[in-house]
């Protein structure tokens, strides 16, 4: 699987988790527990950058974090980086072939 495809799959997973957080996270007690679980998913998906998701655990009222799609934002940033890497790789190939000819 290419890095770009992996980033797209992570984006889909992130959107689903954020939608669950937005809807089911309103249930008292479930919201904070789900934030802890989603932080574990974030670390599994994005490595140490996924710890950014932990801010939702700190915000115990569950009123603000439901409106900020943290995982989706992380996934979009990773997708952007993957696209940039693909463009840079394509640029190196084009430059390399031009030098050889």
Task: Explain what this protein looks like in three dimensions.
- The protein has 4 helices and no strands.
- It is an all-alpha fold.
- It has one domain.
- The longest helix has 31 residues, at 70-100.
- The radius of gyration is 18 Å and the shape is elongated.
- The two termini are 32 Å apart.
- Mean pLDDT level: 86
Q: What is the chain-wise order of helices and strands?
A: HHHH
The N- and C-terminal alpha carbons lie at a distance of 32 Å
Low-confidence stretches: none
Radius of gyration, CA atoms, in whole angstroms: 18 Å
Beta-strand portion reads under 5%
Classify the secondary structure makeup into a structural class: mainly alpha
Shape: elongated
What's the main sheet like?
A: none
Number of domains: 1
Strand segment tally: 0
How many DSSP helices?
4
Q: What is the percent of helical residues?
A: over 70%
Topology:
Elements: H1 3-24, H2 30-46, H3 55-58, H4 70-100
Helix pairs in contact: 1-2, 1-4
Could you write a compact summary of the structure shown?
The chain has 101 residues and is an all-alpha fold. Helices cover 73% and strands 0% of the residues.
Q: Can you give keywords for this protein?
A:
single chain, 101 residues, mainly alpha, 4 helices
